[in-house]
Structure formats: C-alpha cells, structure tokens
Amino acid sequence: MPQFLFLDMARGQQKIQSQQKNAKKQAGQKKKQGHDQKAAAKAALIYTCTVCRTQMPDPKTFKQHFESKHPKTPLPPELADVQA
Ligand SMILES: [Zn+2]
Fold it and tell me: How far apart are the CA of 55 and the centre of ligand 1, in A?
C-alpha cells in the first residue's frame, strides 16, 4: 500500500474517533439537562410542514422551509402574512 494512502487513512480514522468522542460528550450533556429540556424542545416544535412533515419551531422557519423546499405548492394560509 503506498505510504501516502496509509497516512490519509490514518488521518481519516483520527477524525472519526474525535467525532465519536464529541458525540459521546454531547450525549452526556444532554442527559444532564434532564426531562424538562426535552419536553420544552418538543413543545417548541409546533409547526409541521403539511407536505413533508418536517417540524419547525416558528412560522418564519416554516415559511422559509416551505418556499425553498416546496416552491410549487401553494403557501398555507397561516403563512401568507408571515414576514420571512
Ligand atoms: Zn416540507
């Protein structure tokens, strides 16, 4: 195996390992925050896209999503007067 290829693979491996470490760290932090945070996050996601069922926390995001992802679909009436 050419040396440069091996070095490249080793570098890629290191990257993956540090990503896994970060993911573990974040998971630990999430656990500490507890259930209230989870419930709040769930309650905040109140806008569900009528086309693809993606959930969004506010009408502005919803409108931006709708205009970029479903430009051919008529805007839902509740979004007509949202300033995006
Ligand atoms: Zn959508």
Answer: 8
Q: What separation in Å is there between the alpha carbon of 28 and the centre of ligand 1?
A: 31
Contact (Cβ atoms closer than 8 angstroms) between residue 64 and residue 47: no
How many angstroms is it from 43 CA to the middle of ligand 1?
19
- Interatomic CA distance for residues 58 and 74, integer angstroms: 19
Low-confidence ranges of the chain (pLDDT < 50): none
* Integer Cα distance of 10 and 2 in angstroms: 13
The 10 Å CB-count burial string (b at 16+, else e) for 39-61 is: eeeeeeeebebeeeeeebeebee
Element (H, E) at 39: helix 3-44
Domain segments of the chain as ranges: 45-84
